[in-house]
């Protein structure tokens, strides 16, 4: 893939709107200062003309690498909220927003490294996870339960994870007994509906190892739960 001689970052929100996937407003000033709207105003190449059928993430990424500003803004619109929810598992709300912004910028600045045969979402989440891990290494670790409680308050996991009314309790339990990689695998599989093969790329493990982590994580949670008291169950079948 040809390298872009000069690429400037697109307009990205300084704070992510968690309630909707709002489109990002283009600007045309060549600056690194924040505009009155709160967005980073940076000049970009011309936009592409929308088509009747939505383009895939991978098609948009290729167009963005060729210089299409609106293509990357559409990618940011699609993924900024799911990415924020993912990052809030281990960080505060403010830190998650900053990491989401940074992950988007890193992705744009490194588009020449993206391979079109890979899922863009997988590539983006891999960048975000590395940024999050780097942040954790630079500071004292915080309690898992507190971070997970904040996460569940903003976004409920899928029903397949637990048929439960109190999902906050379940994710607090996961924070107490599962490691970072296990929780990442569990979240991507159920909350993001990401295939095992793609999860394996995010966490740097083989697909078979990811399946084993999913199975064992669910079993660990099931063993710690008291169905008679809490009325909760976890499906324990092996993922396909």
Structure, briefly:
By secondary structure, this protein is mainly alpha-helical. It has ten helices and no strands. The radius of gyration is 19 Å and the shape is globular.
What does the model show?
- By secondary structure, the protein is mainly alpha-helical.
- It folds into two domains: 136 residues, RNA polymerase sigma factor, region 2, helix turn helix motif (Rna Polymerase Sigma Factor, Chain: A), CATH 1.10.1740; 79 residues, Arc Repressor Mutant, subunit A, CATH 1.10.10.10.
- 52% of the residues lie in helices and 0% in strands.
- It has ten helices and no strands.
- Helix 4 runs parallel beside helix 8.
- The relative contact order is 0.10.
- The N terminus and C terminus are likely disordered.
Please state the structural category: mainly alpha
User: According to CATH, what is the topology of the largest domain?
Assistant: Rna Polymerase Sigma Factor, Chain: A
Strand content: under 5%
CATH class of the largest domain: Mainly Alpha
């Amino acid at each position: 893939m040809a390298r872009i001689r000069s690429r400037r970052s697109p307009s990205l929100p300084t704070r992510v709107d968690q309630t909707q996937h709002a489109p990002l407003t283009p600007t045309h000033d060549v600056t690194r200062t924040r505009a009155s709207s709160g967005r980073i105003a940076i000049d970009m190449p011309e936009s592409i003309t929308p088509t009747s059928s939505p383009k895939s993430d991978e098609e948009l990424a290729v167009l963005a690498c060729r210089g299409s500003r609106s293509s990357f803004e559409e990618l940011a619109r699609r993924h900024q909220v799911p990415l924020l929810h993912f990052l809030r598992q281990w960080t505060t709300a403010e830190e998650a927003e900053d990491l989401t912004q940074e992950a988007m910028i890193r992705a744009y600045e490194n588009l020449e490294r993206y391979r079109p045969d890979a899922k863009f979402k997988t590539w983006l989440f891999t960048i975000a996870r590395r940024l999050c891990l780097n942040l954790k290494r630079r500071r004292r670790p915080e309690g898992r339960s507190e971070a997970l409680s904040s996460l569940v308050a903003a976004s409920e996991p899928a029903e397949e994870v637990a048929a439960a009314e109190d999902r906050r309790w379940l994710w607090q339990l996961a924070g107490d007994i599962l490691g970072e990689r296990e929780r990442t695998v569990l979240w991507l599989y159920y909350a993001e509906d990401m295939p095992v093969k793609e999860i394996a790329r995010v966490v740097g493990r083989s697909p078979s190892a990811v399946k084993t982590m999913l199975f064992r994580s669910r079993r660990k949670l099931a063993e710690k739960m008291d169905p008679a008291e809490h009325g909760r169950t976890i499906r324990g079948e092996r993922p396909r």
